[in-house]
Specification:
By secondary structure, the protein is an alpha/beta fold. Helix content is about 40%, strand content about 15%. The chain has six helices and seven strands. It has a seven-stranded parallel β-sheet, with helices on both faces.
Length: about 230
């Protein structure tokens, strides 16, 4: 795979950390992005190859622009962007406070858009690159207590599908990943071994789905556990 520099948001834990480890094992330079440096350092300690750590709040377009510019100057052109960062507050609609609503929309939707905008011009100039948007099944199906979380994810799905259309005549590949609940910090205390997926398994499927293959294009992948329809 023609990938050298990989940028992963929300790389401090869960699926982001799993993807970082696996791409590092493939020899890529991993740029770990997140809001909490201690978590990013923890992920970095698992990596076998070169890596960089960048603290950033992806809901700030200005902060994202500065970090992406630093990556290009210090690490090189970005070959793969994985928009993985996400937050969820789960409750009935009337119980959600304003701060929680802003946080989900700003991180899950706006953050995905801002990060993508910062890599597009260079990818278009080189006519190469990969963008993976980690959306979740909440971007495809309704579920009680997830009204605003789903709204942010349905928005991310729409953005992903339209981005793929914009780029369909180029060599830039876009993948939307829709997965069920995983054993990650987002679902701490809620999962059991029987019903929540291992993020390492999900990471393997995503990596295989984005690999270039002759006469094959995977635009989206749906991953769920085999005991639960959601």
């Amino acid at each position: 795979m023609d990938i050298n520099v990989v940028v992963i948001t929300g790389a401090g834990s869960g699926l982001g950390a799993s993807l970082a480890k696996k791409y590092s094992d493939l020899g890529c330079h991993i740029c770990l992005l997140g809001r909490t440096k201690t978590k990013l350092v923890r992920t970095a300690e698992t990596l076998n190859h070169r890596h960089s750590i960048y603290e950033v709040d992806i809901s700030s377009k200005n902060d994202v622009a500065k970090v992406m510019q630093s990556i290009k100057e210090e690490d090189g052109q970005i070959d793969l962007l994985i928009n993985n960062a996400g937050v969820g507050v789960f409750d009935l609609t009337e119980n959600l406070d304003e701060a929680s609503i802003h946080q989900m929309i700003d991180t899950n939707l706006k953050g995905t858009i801002f990060c993508t905008q910062e890599v597009l011009n260079d990818m278009k100039k080189r006519n190469r690159g990969y963008i993976i948007n980690i959306v979740s099944l909440s971007g495809r199906r309704a579920k009680i207590t997830e009204s605003v979380y789903s709204a942010s994810k349905f928005g991310a799905r729409g953005f992903t599908e339209n981005l793929a259309l914009e780029l369909e005549d180029s060599a830039i590949r876009v993948l939307g990943a829709y997965m069920g609940n995983m054993k990650t910090e987002l679902w701490d205390g809620a999962y059991t071994e029987e019903t929540y997926m291992d993020p390492n398994d999900v990471a393997d499927i995503i990596i295989e789905s984005i690999k270039p293959r002759k006469n094959v294009l995977v635009e989206e992948v749906v991953i769920r556990d085999n005991k639960n329809k959601y």
